[in-house]
């Protein structure tokens, strides 16, 4: 990301008396490419990572990348094969639509993307309408001191009386559809509780903890400066690169190699030590506290993109949880429920063998250390055409189909 640094430095040099303000990265003309790496290609992979503006999808033999027009030729010369998945990333960004104007929670919230502050206001306003069975909860604090704000929802057993369902969104900053989707879950649970017996049964069965944006600093940075930012905003001593990947930082099998990066400039930088991202510490504390009290029935970590439902494990491709068959059954039925809404096809299976290896990931931690009965990662729409910058007109179809999948899981769990 050298060009961000350059523009920030220029801004501060020419307006020394003014507070320097980072310029927003302009992706006009940048292309998204799906590249195939040559066999046994760690060196080529490193060169690709250096050349591109962003690696979108941390795969092994295939990578989705965003590349500046001037670097396309050098990139295609490096790799074994490539195909264009988006001709103009800047133009795709325009299709995300204007930010929504804030109004009291209604279904129209799900027709546009929103600024960070409005997301927090949405949760507060939603909770204010249902004070007898919900509360705003704080899960932890970010590097820059923002709270990880969530909502707890309970039913007729009273607050904190049922097994926990924990849902995290937007751990990766650029995955904007995931906060919209997890907010839709909270919206459905609260607004339908009184009128829909099937929803009431779910709310009465569990205690929900939904945190739509667990990486607030990164999310804000993706809105102000770089739309394709992934990590948190933590600095690394002796290095100019910023950010840890919070979903490679969980203190379970963090030390295993091959599923995260030790390079602070990488999109999947794991950190200096297990659990050394403040955001991660908050999430770990939440999981540990609920494990030790009423237990965790279901953990969902909501990401984009790729259309996957992934079960443990990420760190070892041959290992399965003892209730793997039930995991696959829940995932299969959820995928069918999603397909029934809109025809959207999801792939499901164990994380490492289905997608790629990950270490220090949330679902490995919640399965083993958190003792959750079920742990899943959702990768929402699409399969790369728009990637993280899903157009505004796909928000409602996405949140609705995903909700059908989650309802199916809640019934089965
Ligand atoms: Zn993600």
Automatic annotation (TrEMBL):
Keywords: Hydrolase, Metal-binding, Metalloprotease, Protease, Secreted, Signal, Virulence, Zinc, Zymogen. It is found in: Secreted. Its main location: secreted. GO terms for cellular component: extracellular region. InterPro entries: CARBOXYPEPT_ZN_1, Peptidase_M14. GO terms for biological process: proteolysis. Residues 1-16 form the signal peptide. SUPFAM superfamilies: Zn-dependent exopeptidases (SSF53187). The active site is at residue 379. It holds the Pfam family Peptidase_M14. Residues 112-413 form the Peptidase M14 domain. One of its GO terms (molecular function) is metallocarboxypeptidase activity. Its cofactor is Zn(2+). Extracellular metalloprotease that contributes to pathogenicity. Belongs to the peptidase M14 family. This is Peptidase M14 domain-containing protein. It comes from Ampelomyces quisqualis. The lineage of its organism: Eukaryota, Fungi, Dikarya, Ascomycota, Pezizomycotina.
């Amino acid at each position: 990301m050298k060009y961000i640094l350059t523009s920030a430095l220029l801004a501060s040099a020419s307006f020394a008396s003014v507070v320097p303000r980072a310029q927003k990265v302009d992706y006009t003309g940048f292309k998204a490419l799906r590249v195939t790496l040559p066999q046994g290609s760690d060196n080529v992979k490193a060169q690709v990572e250096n050349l591109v503006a962003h690696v979108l999808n941390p795969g092994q033999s295939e990578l989705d990348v965003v590349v500046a027009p001037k670097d396309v030729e050098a990139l295609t010369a490096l790799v074994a094969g490539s195909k264009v998945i988006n001709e103009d990333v800047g133009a795709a960004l325009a299709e995300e639509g204007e930010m929504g104007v804030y109004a009291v929670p209604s279904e129209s919230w799900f027709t546009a993307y929103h600024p960070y502050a409005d997301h927090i206001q949405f949760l507060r306003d939603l909770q204010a309408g249902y004070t007898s069975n919900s509360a705003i909860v704080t899960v932890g604090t970010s590097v820059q001191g923002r709270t990880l704000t969530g909502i707890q929802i309970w039913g007729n057993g009273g607050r904190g009386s049922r097994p926990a369902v924990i849902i995290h969104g937007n751990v990766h900053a650029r995955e904007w559809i995931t906060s919209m989707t997890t907010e839709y879950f909270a919206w459905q649970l609260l607004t339908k509780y009184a009128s829909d017996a099937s929803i009431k049964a779910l709310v009465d069965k569990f205690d929900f903890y939904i945190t739509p944006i667990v990486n607030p600093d990164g999310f804000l940075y993706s809105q102000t400066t770089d739309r394709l930012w992934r990590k948190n905003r933590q600095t690394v001593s002796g290095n100019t690169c910023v950010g840890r990947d919070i979903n490679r930082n969980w203190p379970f099998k963090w030390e295993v190699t091959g599923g995260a990066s030790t390079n602070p400039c990488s999109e999947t930088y794991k950190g200096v030590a297990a659990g050394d991202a403040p955001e991660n510490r908050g999430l770990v504390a939440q999981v540990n506290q609920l494990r030790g009290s009423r237990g965790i029935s279901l953990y969902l970590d909501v990401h984009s993109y790729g259309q996957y439902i992934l079960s443990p494990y990420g760190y070892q491709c041959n290992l399965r949880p003892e209730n793997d068959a039930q995991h696959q059954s829940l995932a299969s039925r959820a995928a069918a429920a999603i397909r029934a809404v809109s025809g959207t096809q999801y792939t499901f299976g164990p994380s490492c063998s289905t997608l790629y290896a990950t270490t220090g990931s949330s679902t490995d931690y919640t399965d083993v250390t958190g003792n959750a009965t079920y742990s899943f990662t959702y990768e929402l729409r699409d399969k790369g055409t728009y990637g993280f910058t899903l157009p505004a007109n796909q928000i409602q179809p996405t949140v609705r189909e995903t909700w059908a999948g989650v309802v199916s899981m809640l019934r089965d769990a």
